[in-house]
């Protein structure tokens, strides 16, 4: 069948359009966002280069421009189905549009310019040389950068941009992307005009100017956020502290006492991990620990925001964490650091992501006193079977599920192996990335033994609920609008950013706009309310929530509303909002009695300090939280006798646990040990015991310099 004449010009666009339709069925790539734009840029760059290398060009600086534009249009067409799909599903974002405008087209022009240059310069086999050149740029140059810098984001002239961990948070367009894509276009321009440089005087000045701009760009790669050398990161942070096993580099705005605690924890964790894994630390290179003020500073400098990480491929052992979570992730990341010593030498880790992360999760610090990793897995009616575990512990299966689920299951499994098999055997399996042929027992037997262990773990209804929630979490391939941030999420992140920078007023203003204009989200209302109450904005909070009427299931929103009502004198309404009946008073220890309620609000938000021994017992943990937040020198600071606290209060366990570390930080590890000893008789759960055991060992470590020699 002969095509009508008017359809023939559209024929070249058919294949990319159909390819775009096929992408709609591929998880992650179906999104009209950065990953799909990068894949199209990669394909377009190579195809355009080969096409140009096989074409014939006139001796003109403009020769081939129309063909280059056509190839760019052809590959952009593949994004049309993705764009339509994003609009239909409500997943369109301005960031995605900018990535699609600035990633594929410059790569196509670069590829075409390279092929055109080798063709016009009369190289033999121009298509082959063009492909080789693009492989050099897309793979070899990337690997050089990968092994030279500790960052997790990467820019490349062929495939565009990798922003860092895709599960970290949303992926947004930044000015450094625009900067780098200018460099791509500039290289395309130089290569395009180079064949005419000696023949046409008019192109000489543009070539020289573009070349000069590229030189200036390369001189400012670090400043523009295209690369992050260690020296640049250290300069940005500014602080340094020596430890037994290495150096802590930290943002100099952070209190030195906090960094000293982290330095002590670093030495303690390294000693215990080395002991567990039977490692000889003699001659191990110094460990460089980078502590950022908050996740946004870390995102800007390394590409990883919420994710703490270890660049295991880098020549020097190091880890990167932001201060608010550093204490809790330090042990996990140090496992990655030390495991470099028995890892696959090319990647600095196990070829199996499940083994790499599972070993770290098995040895990490616990921070949930209610439920352990084993209990979360044991809470399922059917344990993960052999096929599930083989996939999870394979080369790529780890990221098929949500991050929390994969970490928990692999951590439970690797923890059981550590308890039942020699460390040398586990290290050998780790290095090889497989279990078969390493253990005498086959993989099926290992999983069966782990199942038998799980069947002995006591679980209750709360554990089963937590387990069900964990196993229901979607992976990135299952998220409805991956990489896209809603307006509410954007405001919430901006508010959190302002809070991290100390701008509570600005954060409250942003959150107020969100709460006024959106449906109630308890976590957002809670953050807004707590921030507002600390600023004395209870009247505004009641005004907004009077119109919102938080529902019965919105407990956190109702608590904020009730606190604001109480502070404005509307006590009866505050009790009505909480719905407190006589038989429920134990469930609301702070809000069932007006005197306790008033004292709790004064301690949490007020400026007039109250002596701790004058407080109700149930309010004293709130006092500790306030004191730990404000620190020594504040009006709330008071050296406190542990005997004043009710350690049987399960709701305050995490506060008391944190208080023991607070005491250690301020030179009182002995008193911290008293707090932990007070907690132990009242908290016998598996997870709580694990937390108490580690904290007690740390206190002894601080009090006894010969701690590891005595074990």
How would you portray this structure in words?
With 711 residues, this protein is mostly helical. It is 57% helix and 4% strand. The chain is built from 31 helices and 6 strands. It starts with 13 loop residues before the first helix and ends in an 8-residue tail after the last helix. The model is unreliable at 581-586 (pLDDT under 50).
Could you provide a short overview of the structure?
With about 700 residues, this protein is mainly alpha-helical.
Which class do the helix and strand fractions yield? mainly alpha
Helicity level: 55-70%
Low-confidence stretches: 581-586
State the separation between the terminal residues, measured CA to CA. 85 Å
The spatial strand order of the largest sheet comes to 3-4-5-6
Query: Roughly what is the average pLDDT, rounded to an integer?
Result: 88
Count of helix runs? 31
Q: In what range is the share of β-strand residues? A: under 5%
**What is the number of beta strands?**
6
Q: Tell me about the largest β-sheet.
A: 4 strands, mixed
Radius of gyration: 30 Å
- Name the overall outline: globular
Key descriptive features of the protein:
single chain, 711 residues, mainly alpha, four-stranded mixed β-sheet, two-stranded antiparallel sheet, 57% helix
How are the SSEs placed, and which strands pair?
Elements: H1 14-23, H2 34-53, H3 65-77, H4 79-89, H5 94-102, H6 104-120, H7 126-148, E1 154-156, E2 160-162, H8 175-193, H9 204-219, H10 230-237, E3 238-242, E4 246-251, H11 256-276, E5 287-292, H12 295-302, E6 318-322, H13 323-339, H14 353-363, H15 373-378, H16 386-392, H17 403-420, H18 423-432, H19 443-454, H20 461-471, H21 487-500, H22 504-517, H23 522-534, H24 538-548, H25 555-567, H26 571-578, H27 594-605, H28 620-630, H29 653-665, H30 669-679, H31 686-703
Parallel strand pairs: 4-5, 5-6
Antiparallel strand pairs: 1-2, 3-4
